[in-house]
Design a protein that fits this description.
The protein is mainly beta and 118 residues long. Helix content is 0%, strand content 55%.
Amino acid sequence: QVQLVESGGGLVQPGGSLRLSCAASGFTFSIYTMNWYRQAPGKQRELVAGISRSATTYADSVKGRFTISRDNAKNTVYLQMNSLKPEDTAIYYCNVPRVEGVSVRYYWGQGTQVTVSS
C-alpha cells in the first residue's frame, strides 16, 4: 500500500533553514508528481511546491526561498526551506495524487511540524 513518511521538521529561528524529507513506498515513485502542502492553525491546507518528472511549481509565497527536489533512486522527495519566516510555521504534508481507475486518489503522509520563532 502507499506510504508517505515525512521527517525533518523542527523549531528554527527566522532566517534559518530546514530540509524536509518524504520517503515513499508502495507505488512506482519515479512516474508520479509529488507535492508538499502545509496547514497553519486556523487556515486551509495549501500547496507549497510540486515536482513532476521534469518540472517544478511553487506557491508565490515561497518562490526563491524553497526548493523541491526528488531522488528517484531513494524514492524520496525533499523540500529545502531557506530564509524561513514566522508565517511559514505549519504542519507540512507530503502528497501524491494517483490515478486509480477513472478517479484520482490523494495520499498523504502524517505531517511534520515546522515552527519558525525566535
